[in-house]
# Entry
Amino acid sequence: MHSTIKRPRYLSYCLYSSLILLAFFVLAPVAWLLLMSLSSPTDLTKVPLQWIPSQWDFSRYAQLLDGDNGSGERFLAAMLNSLIIATSATVIALFAGVLAAYAFSRRNASMLLMFAFLATIMMPPVTYILPLYSAFSDLGILNTKVALIICYCAMLIPFAIWLMKTNIDVLPEEIEQAAMIEGAGTLYTLRKVVLPIILPAIGATAMLSFLTAWDEFFYALIFSSDLSAKTIPVAIADFSAGRVTDFGVIASVGVLASLPPVIVALFFQRFIVSGLVGGSVKG
Amino acid sequence: MSDSTSSFISNQVSTPPPGQVSGSTDASQRQQSYNNTNRDEAILSIRSLYKSYYDASILQDINLDINSGDFLVLVGPSGCGKSTLLSCIGGLTDVTSGEIYCKGKDISQLDPAKRDIAMVFQSYALFPNMTVAQNIGFGLEVRKVPAAKRTQKIQQVAEILHLEPLLDRTPAQLSGGQRQRVAMGRALVRDPTLFLFDEPLSNLDAKLRLTMRTEIKHLHQRLGGTMVYVTHDQVEAMTLASKIVVLNQGVIQQFGTPDEVYKRPANTFVAEFMGSPAMNLMQAKVLVEAGDLKIQIQREDEPPIIFSEPAATDALRAFANRSVIVGLRPESISDLPARDPQRSHSVDCRIDYLEGIGSDVYATLKIAGGDVISRLHGDSSVRAGDRQQLHFDLSNISYFDPSSQLRI
# Structure
């Protein structure tokens, strides 16, 4: 039913073994992370390594999710910070990105400006650290979530504009012209006509933006110093910075920290469907 | 022949005054026909409109007036600027200079949303994320028409266009003809001052195109809106229009009723563009014999065709003993006698080859060094190479100046 063309047997073997290999490469680290988080410290330090834990140890998860406990408090605060910062930065970047992309795509905004935006993300972040640090310090917003939201917006907006512009460029312009002739203003057209059509692109951009902000380490490390602004990547680093490192704890934090992006990805995946433009122009 | 110059002077056009369909106007009247009174009466008036992209001139000195209920068709070959002109009226393209008046108000600098016009796009341009009902009701929603009234109007339009069973579908689930109907529904529902159609039928197959053409014609007769319609199909132009603008290279060649454009083309371009097969153009000489004007058309190896022109105008007399171009439609050269025996001239011709289309037979003959097509009755038994007595019906004959190509 699926394919009427018969594939030679050796080709099928090749295809499936490549798939298995790929799956192994992608899933093995995650599996190992899970195993580590559930192994007892003695199992993890045994030579040769005890691959399958002798007993399942869920205590670290209990510890991390318990806010009254020292490491639990640090972890939960970092999770909350990361959620607030990544979500805010994503929302702002999408909002600004869609409007700017429309201006570049349909209102003949200067392409020079667009390339200038893109150039900012080509530079290594370390070049911005010093000027940003002194600027944030002068503004008195060091070690606040706002500072990180600003940084991440600056990173995400050029990228969002670029992605959105490519998607708006390919839309048939007559659809917007039709809306305008029907009496709709730019914002109305954008909201009711353009946005619904580019929803897949918005979904993809939102997902990528959220992941970028969630995983960012360098700015977060420099600009945050305590629980009020520390994000999850910095918190993970902190857990490993003690004198005695419990790899199991780090692994548990890693597993928990990867849950929100996974949920976000699952949520946005349903927007990423193709063929939304079908039937609008001649068929 | 008449003394009319009603239709064409280089890139200027004349508009018959309201009520006068194919009257004749002289030069001074033509000047006056673009005064303000006319502009205020007309639904749409265009005054010395120019459009150019960088160095390329797309539209030059466009002037026209149409009244309420008119069906104006802009017709011309590809790249003549007809779609650009429509786009200028709709506000989707900025004009370089000139004014567009709608109900006496200059709208040339106005936002398309504020022009009170509706447009049917060549590509339909439906909103893919909305149902048929939402597509049709979009303009009403923008104008914040209450939901109940909106539904009622959508129902009315759906009824007119036979779209009722499709109201809940999305454009992707419709056929080409249905999409076309939805696009028209979106325009009809708002009752705007002006409807613009940009080659709306060009994406449909031949049979559907005919049906839709008839439907558009019926709709116009029933609803009485004012329409501006772009097409490259001259048959569509002839059947739909109450007024035709023939454009070529951004210049209006002729502005008139379909009858005027067909029977009294303003220049050789219009003569050849309108009508299928095109008007036959033949080199001829104007002779004066005892005060009578005679037209002589040379033939190779055969005696020349000579007929007298009793209705000669002064303009034609001025061409005495000089060359002119004679224009005759294929149906004016027939094996059947002309309606008016006074204006009929019979000639013995050799038929070169024949093309039968069932209802008629098109016969090609050589006159004045060129191919001339004549329309014979469908039952004609003549064969290629035969000699045949053909009747030249001179009642709708056209004369053109060989140097300027303009109508005399």
